[in-house]
Amino acid sequence: MMNISSDRIRKTRRAKDLSGTEVAEKLNISAQYYYNIERGIRNLSAELAAGLAKIFGVSADYLLGLSDDPNSSSNVVASQSDKPYSLTPKEENDIAIKLQKMMEELESEESLAFLGEPMDEEDKELLRMSLENSLRLSKEMAKRKFTPKKYRK
Asked: What is the four-CA torsion angle of 126, 127, 129, 131, rounded to 10 degrees?
């Protein structure tokens, strides 16, 4: 199930002489979750791709297989004017803050559980990713619904 990005992530980590456990600690995820990304079992979220790119000193596009140059980004990303409902950096920051508060509130309770079983780190990460996607989607939907017609394209 190995793909271009998982193979490239593994090779880049090894070239930087880092263990998977070290990388997982820097990303604040479990080592098992990280190794599942390297094996192609788990998909790489945008947040984790950005974190890996920073740790390895390469572009996220390189890790994802979108570019063969480790130091440059592809031009696949559209400009803000091409996507009138895309999120601004301030909105991205607001989502990150809200998500952090939500996760802290969930973890401050006795324990997170699903069907009576305590949630492990991988399940918590999946829950966090789901909440993040929901927050982003709701923000974009609100922008579509409430943006005055004169500002729409």
From this structure: 160
